[in-house]
């Protein structure tokens, strides 16, 4: 595979040039860090590698090496923002020209805070390891359409309902791409077939919509949907609200068994200071969410973990939490 395959004109979108300094704060055995680092090296830029992400060390690396470009995931933004102001504002980040984030949707409040801090240089990239399709949005464009992951730069998105019918602008359904890179799942023809529509378009299980101007918005993952009392609930919205609270550094929302409702909405939160975990903070966070979301979308209970189970590239192992708290609910 060529360095830019699967990620077309990445360098051009990122305004990256020879002798620039690219920071990779995540391991390159994950697709996005590998591809962005390879793109940087392909044009003669230097890649600064972190063995493991640490918020303060990342800021130090930017200052120490004069980093011009970097690729992050949203949880990294949150951890940098939750550093004491005296710490994070003590670094000189003036060499940064563009950064890009991917791997998961970024809560709009968090992205606004990053743009306020770093300026309108925080771009967003949406894609998948399968190469089904790719979209990109510049920070300047995002400020006009908060929450969007941009317009396609590989493939054409189509939004389909559960019956395979194509939906119109603003209607939420499963995201399929036409014209991306062909792929199949290794030794799993059934999975490959289930990801392909009658038209030959493919999906990786993301749910969202396209607006009237062709900008794509993500709602959640199909398999994350909670069905509570017969109502479909996408937990990403509650997760974003929880993460926007200054006491919170990470959050997961999911369904657990409920004899009356089928599933009830459960939240598990990682605090900036784990020693604050308790009923008082849980009540504070519940009040915070209830003031921002419809009642049926709000968690019915909140628990705490010292650290949520995420990969080094920022992917959440939500199933681990579902299994743990489903047992407790039984």
From TrEMBL:
Pfam families: AMP-binding, AMP-binding_C. SUPFAM superfamilies: Acetyl-CoA synthetase-like (SSF56801). It comes from Mycobacterium cookii. Residues 1-29 are annotated as: Disordered. InterPro entries: AMP-bd_C, AMP-bd_C_sf, AMP-dep_synth/lig_dom, ANL_N_sf. Residues 237-315 form the AMP-binding enzyme C-terminal domain. Residues 10-23 have a biased composition (Basic and acidic residues). The lineage of its organism: Bacteria, Bacillati, Actinomycetota, Actinomycetes, Mycobacteriales. Residues 15-179 form the AMP-dependent synthetase/ligase domain. GO terms for molecular function: CoA-ligase activity. It comes from the Bacteria. This is Acyl-CoA synthetase.
């Amino acid at each position: 595979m060529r360095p830019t395959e699967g990620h077309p004109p990445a360098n051009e979108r990122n305004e990256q040039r020879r002798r620039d300094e690219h920071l990779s704060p995540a391991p390159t055995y994950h697709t996005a860090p590998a591809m962005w680092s390879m793109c940087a090296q392909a044009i003669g830029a230097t890649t600064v590698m972190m063995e493991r992400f640490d918020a303060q060390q990342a800021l130090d690396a930017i200052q120490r090496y004069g980093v011009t470009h970097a690729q992050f995931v949203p949880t990294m933004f949150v951890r940098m923002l939750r550093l004491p102001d005296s710490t994070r504002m003590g670094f000189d980040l003036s060499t940064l020209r563009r950064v890009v984030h991917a791997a998961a949707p970024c809560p709009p409040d968090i992205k606004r805070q990053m743009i306020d801090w770093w300026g309108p240089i925080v771009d967003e990239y949406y894609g998948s390891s399968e190469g089904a399709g790719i979209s990109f949005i510049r920070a300047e464009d995002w400020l006009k359409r908060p929450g969007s992951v941009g317009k396609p730069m590989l493939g054409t998105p189509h939004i389909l309902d559960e019956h395979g019918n194509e939906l119109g602008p603003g209607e939420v359904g499963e995201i399929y791409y036409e014209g991306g890179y062909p792929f199949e799942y290794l030794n799993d023809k059934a999975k490959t077939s289930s990801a392909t529509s009658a038209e030959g378009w493919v999906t990786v299980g993301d749910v969202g919509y396209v607006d009237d101007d062709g900008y794509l918005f993500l709602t959640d993952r199909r398999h994350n949907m909670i069905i509570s009392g017969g109502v479909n609930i996408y937990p990403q919205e509650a997760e974003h609200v929880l993460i926007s609270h200054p006491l919170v550094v990470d959050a997961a929302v999911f369904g657990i068994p409920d004899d009356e409702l089928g599933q009830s909405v459960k939240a598990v939160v990682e605090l900036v200071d784990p020693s604050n975990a308790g009923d008082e903070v849980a009540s504070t966070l519940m009040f915070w969410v209830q003031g921002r979301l419809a009642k049926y979308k709000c968690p019915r209970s909140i628990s705490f973990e010292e650290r949520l189970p995420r990969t080094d590239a920022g992917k959440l192992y939500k199933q681990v939490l579902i299994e743990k708290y489903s047992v407790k609910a039984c």
